[in-house]
TrEMBL record:
The gene is Rpp40. InterPro entries: RNase_P_Rpp40. GO terms for molecular function: ribonuclease MRP activity; ribonuclease P activity. One of its GO terms (biological process) is tRNA 5'-leader removal. It holds the Pfam family Ribonuc_P_40. It comes from Sakesphorus luctuosus. This is RPP40 protein. GO terms for cellular component: multimeric ribonuclease P complex; ribonuclease MRP complex.
Length: 177
């Protein structure tokens, strides 16, 4: 398939800009992806993976951790949850910088328009990370860095425009609203 070039033209055509960010594109080939059903948050045996399994898988993909469970790996023996499917090409766009909420909403809207092409993905994901050492977290409260500085949320958007919203914060932070 020619999904990589299609996506690149899609992003450039829609002129995604957010306060002069750094934007990088990459294509992940033959990527094992969990099978997801929008109405099955907990997953269903032999039919779909749970939201929690997807979130863990996404962390591995974004950190370029191998998904093949090799016993010789000193980094990770993680493998993609079952059931899964191999996607010939997955497209990853990373935007780094200070991005205002209005731009994130614009990104979400443009990603939803992407479902207009029937040959493309069944679901998309958009992850927004706060800086690990940001002084504030949710609800304008002080952000407790302590260990990892977790401060992120993730949308999983499905072709029918249902979505999951996943949030993560550090142990010393207030929960999101």
């Amino acid at each position: 398939g020619a999904e990589g070039p299609t996506l690149m033209s899609y992003f450039s055509k829609n002129q995604i800009q957010a306060l002069k960010p750094k934007i990088t594109f990459s294509t992940l080939r033959d990527l094992q992806c969990p099978v997801l059903q929008s109405d099955e948050l907990q997953g269903k045996a032999e039919e779909s993976c749970s939201a929690e399994e997807h979130f863990e898988w996404l962390g591995a993909v974004l950190n370029q951790v191998s998904l093949d469970n090799k016993s010789s790996s000193f980094l990770s023996t993680y493998c993609c949850p079952e059931p899964n499917t191999v996607v010939e090409k997955a497209f990853l766009c990373t935007i780094t910088g200070f991005i205002i909420p209005e731009k994130i909403i614009q990104l979400l809207e443009q990603l939803c328009c992407y479902f207009g092409d029937p040959k493309l993905a069944h679901w998309l994901t958009l992850t927004v990370h706060g800086f690990a050492d940001s002084p504030v977290s949710w609800r304008e409260n002080e952000h407790g860095f302590h260990k990892g500085g977790e401060n992120l949320y993730n949308f999983v958007i499905f072709r029918n425009l249902d979505y999951w919203l996943q949030m993560a914060v550090g142990a010393h932070d207030d929960c999101p609203p």
